[in-house]
histidine kinase
Amino acid sequence: MPLRTWLVVLLVVVSGLGLAVSSLAVSSIMRDVLYSRVDDELQDATQTWAREVSSDSFQGDYSKRPPTEYVVMFYTPDGSLHYTGPSTSTPDASNLYIGAGPTTVGSLENDRQWRAVATEENGVITVVAKDLTTENAILKGLAVVQVLIVALVLAVIAAAGYWFIRRALRPLRVVEKTASDIAAGDLDKRVPEWPLHTEVGQLSAALNVMLGQLQQSVISAQDKEEQMRRFVGDASHELRTPLTSLHGYTELYRSGATSDVDMVFSKIDSESKRMSLLVEDLLALTRAEGSRLDKRRVDMLELSLSAGSSARAAFPNREITVVNDTQSIPVVEGDPDRLHQILLNLITNGLRHGGPQAKVTLRLRKEGGDVLIDVRDDGKGMSAQDAAHIFERFYRADSSRTRDTGGSGLGLAIVKSLVEQHGGSISVTSKPGEGSTFTVRLPALESESD
């Protein structure tokens, strides 16, 4: 059963119970009022006209009779009963107590009800009774009217309740439709905003927050899936070139088109090394994105000097300078091996692609609560378009140059992944002919000497 129907039924049932109790209370009060008035009349009759009726009856004068709805009965000491009144029905006085208050009794002949009181004087018991037909008719009419009123009121309550409940639940239907639209693929759909002091407003606000988070999760999942497809496609493309070369040279030698064995083996060895480098870079990127870091306190000045020393060993004739502008010891929390890999990759990148005369400078500085390491080369630089994509996997500013030098296009992607694992960020500024500056930002720790 729909919620609105349940609410209407509940409203009608509760209202019906309330009206029923109210009707019973009104009927009870009305009955007490009517019977109280009859009791007052009976008590008054025993002190006034019932005495006269009694006196006249014993004198044999029956011309005087009680009022139409009354009867008077006299029980004499000898046990005889004298009855006077217009009614032919006789009240059942067997349960009356002399001197007690008025009591409701039945009739000896039929189901008529009486209100009767008994008194005794000079040995004569006088019973005055009033017919309750009129009062019972009033009470019955009142009950019928109340039933009709209750039925009419319940019908009005049901109709009005259905309208108001339907109106009150309209936002839920909007929420339902919004959910259906989202399920159909409209991820930008949102629930209308209602006042926050209402339950529906709070529900809509919570749903919109949840829908926003779900949309971001879906978009993120789609982006990751697209990145994975692109990554697999790029990796496959990069591996296809050396594999094609390997296959071509082996077929060339097998078919007898060349007898230069040294040349064939040299080409095969070169392409094998290129494939090995690509596979190693792919594994390095996978480890960078999925491995745990062995974090500890790291002195970035000492680490920068170590990375510069390692780079000088690989490029003995190139100039690599480390400058500390922090005025203190720059300490961060991180994995020293991974941080060394980051700096060494950036230095190597600047020396390889900046040109044969390029120099690299590592400058350490502090900004706010972060340690910044600027790795600057004064080489060829790159365009703004290349700088915007330089951290993407397999992206090459100069593909022909990179292939000749054996690069895979994954080095800076690995660096970016490692920096982000340390809770930091990396950016680049560059202009053609003026060199490039890579800035690594890492959260700083207070050194013991600070």
